Please model this.
Amino acid sequence: MDIVAGAGLPDFFTRLAPNGRMVVVGAVAGQPPADFGTRLMASFQKSMSFATFSAATVPEAGLRAVRADQFAAAGRGEIETVVHEVLPLDQAATAHRKMDAGEVFGRIVLTP
Model:
């Protein structure tokens, strides 16, 4: 599972075992490079499958069920996030620079 994506994403696919599975959730380091599709096609010889989805394509009833389940899990303390750093709101530009530079693992929390 990868939440970072960015320029290194295509390399992860080349390292998959035959019939391996790669799950990309989000892209905190930005979008993959423009030649991502070309490099991805080379991995299909490994019996790779590829699927995407957007919340816009999921039926509303399904979204409601996921929201209810995930919000309840968060309320029970079952969902954790990795906090890289906590910064005051006036350092939002610094937070963006760090994220753009790929210096962040997890989230940067901005506080008032």
